[in-house]
Amino acid sequence: MKKHSQHPISIANNIVLIPGFMCDAFLWEMMLPDLQELGSIHFADLNYGDSIDAMALRIIPELPPSCILVGFSLGGYVARRIALLAPEKINKLILLNTSARATTQEEIDRNQQQIKMLKVFPYKGQTITALKRGLHPDNADNTALLTLMQNMSLALGREVFIRQLSIVREDGHADFEKIFCPALVVASRQDQMRSLIEAENIAAALPHPTYRILDQCGHMSPLEKPKELANLLRSFITS
Are residues 111 and 204 part of one domain? Predict the structure, then answer.
């Protein structure tokens, strides 16, 4: 796990950031100036592990003794399992643009088809169509965002792509009733990949939830609305 080297205003909080599918630490780059003011920043990754639990169990030993855990999208699935398996290490849980629903058979079939294609064609990162689906329609032609997303995908490479695409996610709603730390759930109103209902189901299952919605934002909230998202995190972390 990487630790950000800058000196935050407050060192009382250890904030651990878990990215999403085919994302790395650059996902958080535009939020870092604000996050640094809230605590010491640590970057986790999802580069290894063939299941949600395997990813969680790999990260847990690297966590600070006490931390605020932030999981985006796929990282939210992993953060949920960490909070269940190692509750003594988690002060607060923050879930961004994520879900707890199981992978559908249709999604499994589609993912397996993509994996088969990679045996024939070279890996060139995620398709532009897939990347655009992660953005609000107003950002669908935002070259800077698309390039950043594609660069993360290319940097992580073919093996990570196949590994993450192969993960079958099990329904995790029952986990949330056992997670007693304060939790923030953030959804985006125009998210084409995760619905508001999925976020509402998470919030409804948590004992101590705070639920917020970002307007005019697609799935990639840390890139599309970094300032607004950082303000939501600041309010929750400092409350």
Answer: no
